[in-house]
Amino acid sequence: MASTDSTHQEKHSIVYHPADVDVAASLVAGSHVDQDLDQDLALRLRRKIDWHLMPFMCSTITFMDKTSLGQAAVLGIEKGAHLNANQFNWLGTIFYFSYLLFQYPQNLALQRFPVGKWMSINIFVWAIVLCCHAACTSFAGLFIVRFLLGICEGAITPGFMIVTSMFYTRAEQTRRVGYWFLMNGFAVIILGFIAFGVLHTHTHNFMPWQWLMIITGIITLLTSVLFWFFFPDSPTTAWFLTPEERIAALKRIQVNQTGVENKFFKIEQFHETVKDPKTWLLAFFAAAANIVNSLTNQRQLIVAQFGFNPLQTTLLGCVDGAVEILTIFLAVTLASQPYIGRAYAGVLMYVPAILGAILVSTLPFSNKVGLLFSYWISISAIAPFTIFLGWVASITAGHTKRITTNAIVLSAYAIGNAVGQFMWKSQYKPRNHIPWAVITVTNLSSAVALLALRYLYQRENKRRDFETRDDTYDAVYIKTESGEEKQVDKASAP
Question: How far apart are CA 7 and CA 190, in angstroms?
Fold first, then answer.
């Protein structure tokens, strides 16, 4: 409970119980680390954090698993599990329906429990479920395991977003989110080579797509163990930082003014988030921008329809991954330039994506090389969402507000992915004019939404710049168990 304190005569002040403020506040309060952090120390800390954090968030296995269904399409899953085209589409959709259904519970769990440990548990269950895919020979069985896989996936992206905002400054977050998100591309490449290998296996009653699930499941299982022991929960407990470095790491990110972590759900922050129109514009973008992500499960089938055989399709899929890597890297590089920024960088990436989608639908079907290159150009539409994730992580202060915003945005992401699967109907094949038209329109709508978001946040920043500074409570303190009061950063307060 907050209370004013008349003992601080020079300024108005407010005193909070430690449970009401960010968990980092108690650690930093009264520390002997200089308030003005030495730049050399800050750079050394960032390098140390990068070496211990980024390898985990860039682990390709966390992206390989959710793209495995698309690869399995050319490895015989439709024949092996007796699926028709509509049932195959439902397997992609149910993954995102369960992701949507459990998104807010997963975000609440990420607030309530240690982030690293909770993600490790989900990755472990994920591995078991992935292996269970190989035992499924019917639509019903695959439907169940895909549903369970979506539940586990719901902890990964929001967990990475929370950890990124805990350890990095706003200026650093765009590139870091881009680095771990572009691992989608590496995952596609690695899966392509694994699929090429298992296509040459000849085992009785065990098809190539089943080997793919077993191999990726075992790798995921090993990854979960590494996450449990080595992935940090927060800067306040990071095993690779000394006590002094933990305090310095927290002071390094105070420029964010977003806090680090608070284990208590604050209903007023929840209400503030859901009443903010900008939250729902963020959600609109997340949904519209991910219609194109339906290509994840359809890409192998699309390329095969251009006239390539299964071996060629599998190897050509590796190029998809290379295109993803290059476009995401270009996008986050552009977004990090002060004279361009996130919104304009995202719009620039939509230009070739829209052109590619139009060409895939209009080029003669006999021009399979032209269709293939147009398809690859259209993949650049995934890059703006990467920039967007870094943007969301950096503009939200307050832990309850952050997990609520993440839940709403990623629920919209799930809706976009789920709805997108239904476009790819049998009657539209092989040209798929309707799906490509929808992708073109949603890409254009997403670009407009980015510009609208930029305008709204720019207008809000200008309004705040002209506001009279409120110094009613210019000093914020916490009262320790011993009764001692320690001053903390005002951004740590509720």
Answer: 63
pLDDT at 48 over 50: yes
pLDDT the model gives residue 474: 47
Query: Which residues in 366-386 are b (16+ Cβ under 10 Å) and which e?
Result: eeeeebbbbbbbbbbbbbbbb
Cis peptide preceding 430, ω within 30 of 0: yes
* CA dist., res. 308 & res. 368, Å (int): 9
Indicate if the alpha-carbon torsion angle 142, 145, 151, 156 is positive or negative: negative
Q: Are 240 and 232 in contact (CB under 8 A)?
A: yes
Our CA angle for 293, 294, 297, nearest 5°, is 115
The pairing of strands 13-16 and 3-4 is antiparallel
In this structure, what token pair is assigned to residue 420? 């997108």
DSSP state of 468: P
Q: Are 110 and 155 in contact (CB under 8 A)?
A: yes
Eight-class DSSP state of 380: G
End-to-end CA separation in angstroms for the chain: 11
The Cα–Cα gap between 403 and 273 comes to 10
Q: Residue 344 is encoded by which pair of tokens?
A: 């304009």
Backbone angles phi, psi at 15, to 5 degrees: -115, 130
User: Which residues, other chains included, contact 255 with Cβ-Cβ below 8 Å and sequence gap of 6+?
Assistant: 169, 170
Q: Is the pLDDT of residue 29 over 80?
A: no
What mean pLDDT do residues 427-441 have?
89
Q: At what angle do helices 208-230 and 183-198 cross, to 10 degrees?
A: 140
CA nearest to 70, candidates 202, 156, 195, 180: 195
- pLDDT average, residue stretch 148-159: 89
Helix H or strand E encompassing 182: none
- Both tokens of residue 93? 């959709």
Q: Which of 58, 283, 244 is nearest to 164 (CA)?
A: 58
What band does 479 get if pLDDT is binned at 50, 70 and 90?
Answer: low
Q: Token pair of 450, please?
A: 């980015």
What distance in Å separates the CA atoms of residue 333 and residue 146, rounded to the nearest whole number? 35
Are 360 and 299 a contacting pair, CB within 8 Å? Answer: no
